[in-house]
Amino acid sequence: MTTRFFKPGSISDAMDAYLKSDGTTHYFAGGTDLMVKLGPPGNTGHGFISLERLSGLNRVQERPEDKIFIGAMTGLSEVAGSGLIAEHFPALAAAAGSVGSPSIRNMGTIGGNVCNASPSADTAPPLMVYGASAVVAGRDGEKTIPMDAFFTGPSTTCLKPGDILTGFMLPKNPAIRAGFVKLGKRKAMECSIVSLGLSLEMDGAGKCGTVRIALGAVAPTPVRIVRAEKILEGRPLEAEFIHRAAAAVAGDIHPIDDLRATAGYRRKMAGRMVRETLLQMCRQDHQ
Ligand SMILES: Cc1cc2nc3c(=O)[nH]c(=O)nc-3n(C[C@H](O)[C@H](O)[C@H](O)COP(=O)(O)OP(=O)(O)OC[C@H]3O[C@@H](n4cnc5c(N)ncnc54)[C@H](O)[C@@H]3O)c2cc1C
């Protein structure tokens, strides 16, 4: 069995190679998901197109109009340790820092985490609640896809054959408070049983403005729970509305039973995680 491993120096060469290949060729970022699925590159019969040499994909950069670009090839360790990300998107830094172990975070990339499209991908909920968009290079040029529309099912995305995710564009918003909470059976090397990203912006009159609630591992894809968001928006951050929003979360998700947890446990804990996160924000407001 042979393995082909190609390291192109440009996005167009990478796309050409992919589009000329058969269905057994894959883009290769850090390889932490691919190697589990396909076995080590030396012995699979598959072809790999490394994205390592493509310029501009492994950086975190300030962009015009108060935006920050995070390249798809940025390692999870860099995302977790970036001062810029910690300042503007702390829930994303926390999510990246919760993945696997130091060695997995050193190899794995944020783009790979998202393109692998696991329902439990830990960086997905915070990207969704910060209003991130995926920046994608395709045959017809560059396109921008809101993270809410990126996932289409377990292990599937809206990327077309040959498309390369180049990174994420995130709007800075100093008025947003956000949190990331991960429930697992242990603290390291553990895929999420439930993960939560939640962001909240108060309006000037003491009421909730924009609220975003996104959960991982409770549905075929990471999901926003819009009904719960709408219960809070325009209302004061008070126990009555917090409890109603948490109940809406538990009611609107579609978890499954698997090796890690039952659907019932996931449903109960998702509601509780939302409630506790909002109550904590409420307490901060009254300190
Ligand atoms: C022991 C272990 C523990 C783990 N723990 C966690 C955890 O706690 N939380 C969690 O979320 N994940 C976890 N993971 C999963 C994994 O580490 C992450 O999903 C990782 O971020 C994948 O990134 P990568 O660069 O290694 O992707 P790769 O394995 O290289 O690629 C993954 C997929 O995405 C595609 N791809 C990658 N980059 C691009 C791109 N730029 N454009 C288009 N397609 C692309 C590849 O073709 C492939 O299909 C764990 C994995 C292991 C092995």
Topology:
Layout: E1 4-6, H1 11-20, E2 25-28, H2 34-38, E3 47-50, E4 60-63, E5 67-71, H3 76-81, H4 83-88, H5 90-97, H6 102-107, H7 110-115, H8 124-129, E6 133-138, E7 141-146, E8 151-153, E9 156-157, E10 164-171, E11 177-183, E12 194-202, E13 208-216, E14 223-224, H9 226-232, H10 239-252, H11 263-285
Parallel strand pairs: 1-3, 2-3
Antiparallel strand pairs: 4-5, 5-10, 6-7, 6-10, 8-9, 11-12, 12-13, 13-14
Helix pairs in contact: 9-10, 10-11
Structural commentary:
It contains eleven helices and 14 strands. The model has no long low-confidence stretch (mean pLDDT 95). It has 287 residues and is of the alpha+beta class. α2 links the parallel β2 and β3. The strands form four sheets. It has a five-stranded antiparallel β-sheet. The protein has a four-stranded antiparallel β-sheet with strand order 11-12-13-14. The chain is 34% helix and 25% strand. α9 packs antiparallel against α10 and α10 packs antiparallel against α11. The protein has three domains: 46 residues, no CATH class; 112 residues, 2-Layer Sandwich (Uridine Diphospho-n-acetylenolpyruvylglucosamine Reductase, domain 3), CATH 3.30.465; 94 residues, 2-Layer Sandwich (Enolase-like, domain 1). Flavin-adenine dinucleotide binds next to β2, α2, α6, α7 and β10.
> Largest beta sheet: what is the strand line-up?
4-5-10-6-7
| Element order: H for helix, E for strand | EHEHEEEHHHHHHEEEEEEEEEHHH
- Helix fraction, binned, reads 25-40%
Bound molecules: flavin-adenine dinucleotide
Structural class: alpha+beta
